[in-house]
């Protein structure tokens, strides 16, 4: 049985959240952006603009970055990291008016660690997309770098500030300690390009659980507690499925980038199926994503934001899942959509 759609739409209150017409901060900060041609980069550009700040320089090996002009008109752009590194370092040494305060990182997953350290070395805070790093031990080194430089590493965990998810967390906090049963299903169609790109290489993306699942795992642990036990039932280059025992929930999960796994009842025009059921009731949060990166930036600039300790549980979990041997010990723990691939 598949989730019945029951869309709930949340409107962002412009009196509480920043917009491009109402800068949030009195001081204007300078930002650098790494990965400017990437899919998620425009959300960071919008967030920088919405919070009244400046994007002073950007980097991407691809020069297809005309979208920069939609947000800022005077961005210094580089395709070579070496020239970008020299430029940012020169701004710092000369105490130029464009000296970088924050580096926003949208590069491929395996480069996050190096680009975070680049930011810290240049006396800037880092705002990095998920996953913060691929391996838990990289976090230890980054925490040491934070202490040495006095700068801060922030992770973009936007599901934690989604209105529906925040409402769910509040409700679960008052449920009297009840244990819950959860099914997580996420299928997003990806073409052949995906497997030829860095996303299809486990050593670069971290694999399916890391690349498309980590934000769901972070959200579930944030609400239902740390993972006490995990199993992987199916794992290949297109899909993964397994079981998590959290402190307050039992979770069956299935993730896929194969369009053939989309439910037959889904419209042919739709390329993504996202469904979370808790005790048989669907939690719908397809809407409400438009301003989440701006709200993440607002939190960071206000001295809050999510750092390395917040990111660590999900990094440790997906590393464990990536390293696990797929096997089924209890058929009841297998997600319904994964059963066809496990032979049960």
How many domain units? 2
**CATH class placement of the largest domain:** Alpha Beta
Average pLDDT rating:
91
Proportion of beta-strand residues: 15-25%
Q: List the strand order in the largest sheet.
A: 3-2-1-4-5-6
Biggest beta sheet attributes: 6 strands, parallel
Q: Tally of extended strands?
A: 12
SSE pattern? EHEHEHEHEHEHEHHHHEEEEEHH
User: Quick one: overall form?
Assistant: globular
Structural class computed from helices and strand pairing: alpha/beta
Distance between the amino and carboxyl termini: 17 Å
User: Can you tell me the CATH architecture of the largest domain?
Assistant: 2-Layer Sandwich
Annotation field: number of helices: 12
Write the layout of secondary structure elements.
Elements: E1 30-34, H1 41-50, E2 54-59, H2 68-71, E3 76-78, H3 81-93, E4 102-105, H4 112-121, E5 125-128, H5 136-149, E6 153-155, H6 163-172, E7 180-188, H7 192-196, H8 202-205, H9 208-211, H10 214-224, E8 227-235, E9 239-246, E10 249-256, E11 272-278, E12 281-283, H11 292-301, H12 308-323
Parallel strand pairs: 1-2, 1-4, 2-3, 4-5, 5-6, 7-10
Antiparallel strand pairs: 7-11, 8-9, 9-10, 11-12
Helix pairs in contact: 1-11, 4-5, 5-12, 6-10, 10-12
């Amino acid at each position: 049985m598949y989730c019945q759609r029951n869309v709930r739409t949340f409107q962002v209150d412009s009196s509480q959240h920043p917009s491009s017409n109402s800068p949030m901060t009195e001081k204007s900060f300078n930002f650098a952006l790494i990965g400017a041609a990437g899919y998620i980069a425009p959300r960071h550009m919008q967030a920088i603009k919405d919070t009244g700040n400046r994007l002073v320089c950007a980097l991407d090996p691809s020069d297809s970055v005309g979208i920069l002009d939609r947000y800022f008109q005077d961005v210094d752009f580089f395709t070579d990291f070496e020239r970008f590194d020299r430029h940012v370092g020169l701004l710092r040494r000369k105490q130029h008016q464009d000296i970088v305060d924050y580096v926003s990182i949208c590069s491929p997953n395996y480069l996050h660690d190096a680009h975070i350290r680049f930011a810290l070395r240049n006396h800037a805070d880092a705002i990095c997309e998920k996953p913060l790093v691929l391996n838990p031990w990289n976090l230890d080194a980054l925490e040491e770098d934070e202490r040495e430089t006095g700068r801060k590493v922030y992770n973009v965990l936007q599901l934690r500030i989604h209105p529906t998810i925040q409402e769910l967390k509040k409700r679960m906090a008052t449920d009297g300690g009840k244990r819950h049963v959860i099914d997580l299903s996420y299928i997003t169609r990806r073409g052949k390009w995906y497997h030829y790109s860095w996303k299809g290489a486990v050593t670069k993306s971290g694999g399916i659980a890391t690349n498309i699942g980590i934000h769901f795992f972070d959200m579930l642990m944030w609400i239902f507690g740390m993972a006490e036990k995990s199993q992987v039932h199916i794992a290949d280059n297109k899909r993964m499925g397994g079981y998590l025992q959290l402190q307050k929930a039992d979770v069956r999960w299935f993730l896929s980038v194969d369009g053939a796994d989309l439910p037959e009842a889904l419209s042919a025009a739709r390329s993504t199926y996202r469904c979370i059921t808790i005790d048989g009731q669907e939690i719908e949060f397809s809407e409400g994503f438009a301003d989440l990166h701006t709200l993440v930036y607002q939190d960071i600039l206000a001295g809050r934001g999510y750092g390395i300790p917040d990111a660590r549980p999900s990094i440790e979990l997906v590393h464990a899942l990536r390293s696990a041997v797929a096997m089924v010990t209890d058929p009841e723990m297998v997600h319904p959509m994964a059963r066809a691939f496990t032979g049960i």
